[in-house]
């Protein structure tokens, strides 16, 4: 057996997921009242995403927002995802980034409703969860464990959040309530120090696997594709070098990367004129999809890429998993 073949066999694991954030969720954050009619680009973007994945024989996890699954005009696109064999995850009911401020009862309701709509649209009951805006709380972890989830995937171990918040505080005028919300919105400094590798939450008799979204080892800067796309707005070759270096660092440090996609990575400004205010929406769809394809080719070249659920099932059997208690 040659050296190359040997590496082919022994590729380390990675997982790939997509947060299916829809047009209305971005418009809502941007305070554009059009969001209330739930404008959707799913019928445009889903076939495009599935095509790119299918060409690489990739089976990933798609985290779906319950509100989208509840609407008839999204049903066909969502059913296509399930038919293609991808794992369906729960990305909350209304894509509220304030989930960490919800009570236990509100969270039970939020998850139950989302599960109901998602199952009706895809035939799958989600067993993995990712909070919108990487929101996380011990209450949420407790509710997920009680509802039989196999894993949470809401952690983004990065300092980018706290830095963004400090900047906000320094430049804005906020009342006490707004400060409390902002304080928790982007994660605390402590969250930035959490492990990059999967670990087990263990507290009050609760045990739940955490599959963190991977950030650049050591630097903890995001490496999800939307960040790479932001860099590609300046230079596609720089973006490519950045992503490939991050993957090499993961190999070096034994991190099995969890890589994240968003629909906007597959959409140009010409596809969704209302979202032109977004930094990467100045790029064409053609240019963006080419960046995604090159990144996925690097990823599959270096790693054995699975869905988050498949990866989590393997991780769960490991004896040396780190155990962590939530800070709040
Ligand atoms: Zn989202």
Strand content: 5-15%
Average per-residue pLDDT, rounded, comes to 89
What is the CATH architecture annotation?
Alpha-Beta Barrel
Q: SSE order in H/E notation?
A: HEHHEHHEHEHEHHHEEHHEHEHE
Q: How many helix segments?
A: 14
> How would the global form be characterised?
globular
Largest sheet: 5 strands, parallel
CA-atom Rg in angstroms: 19 Å
The count of β-strands is: 10
Termini, distance in Å? Answer: 52 Å
Determine and state the CATH class: Alpha Beta
In CATH terms, the superfamily is: Glycoside hydrolase/deacetylase
Describe this structure in words.
By secondary structure, the chain is of the alpha/beta class. The chain has one domain (13-324): TIM Barrel (Alpha-Beta Barrel), CATH 3.20.20. 45% of the residues lie in helices and 12% in strands. The chain is built from 14 helices and ten strands. The strands form two sheets. Strands 1, 2, 3, 8 and 9 form a five-stranded parallel beta sheet that branches. A hairpin with a 2-residue loop joins strand 6 and strand 7. Helix 6 crosses helix 7 (138-146), helix 8 packs antiparallel against helix 9 and helix 11 packs across helix 13. It is globular. Mean pLDDT is 89; it is low at 1-8. Residues 19, 21, 91, 95, 132 line the site of zinc ion.
């Amino acid at each position: 057996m040659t050296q190359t073949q040997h590496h082919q066999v022994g590729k380390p694991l990675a997982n790939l997921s997509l947060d299916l954030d829809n047009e209305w969720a971005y418009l809502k954050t941007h305070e554009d009242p059009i969001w209330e009619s739930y404008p959707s680009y799913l019928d445009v973007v889903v076939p495009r995403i599935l095509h790119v994945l299918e060409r690489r024989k990739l089976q990933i996890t798609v985290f779906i927002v319950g509100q989208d699954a509840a609407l008839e005009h999204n049903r066909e696109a969502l059913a296509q995802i399930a038919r293609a064999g991808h794992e369906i995850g729960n990305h909350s009911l209304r894509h509220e980034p304030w989930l960490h401020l919800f009570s236990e009862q509100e969270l039970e309701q939020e998850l139950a409703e989302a599960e109901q709509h998602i199952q009706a649209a895809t035939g799958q009951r989600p067993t993995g969860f990712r909070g919108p805006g990487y929101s996380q709380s011990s209450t949420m972890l407790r509710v997920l464990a009680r509802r039989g989830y196999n894993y949470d995937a809401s952690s983004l171990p990065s300092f980018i959040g706290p830095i963004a918040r400090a900047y906000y505080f320094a430049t804005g005028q906020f009342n006490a309530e707004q400060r409390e919300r902002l304080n928790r919105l982007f994660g605390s400094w402590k969250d930035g120090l959490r492990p990059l590798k999967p670990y087990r939450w263990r507290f009050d008799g609760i045990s739940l696997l955490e599959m963190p979204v991977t950030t650049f080892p050591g630097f903890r800067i995001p490496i999800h594709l939307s960040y790479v796309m932001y860099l590609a707005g300046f230079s596609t070759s720089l973006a490519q070098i950045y992503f490939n270096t991050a993957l090499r660092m993961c190999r070096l440090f034994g991190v099995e990367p969890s890589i994240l996609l968003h629909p906007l990575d597959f959409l140009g400004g010409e596809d969704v004129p209302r979202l032109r205010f977004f930094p990467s929406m100045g790029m064409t769809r053609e240019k963006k999809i080419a960046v995604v394809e090159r990144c996925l080719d690097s990823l599959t070249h270096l790693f054995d890429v699975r869905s988050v659920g498949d990866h989590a099932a393997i991780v769960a059997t490991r004896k040396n998993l780190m155990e962590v208690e939530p800070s709040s």
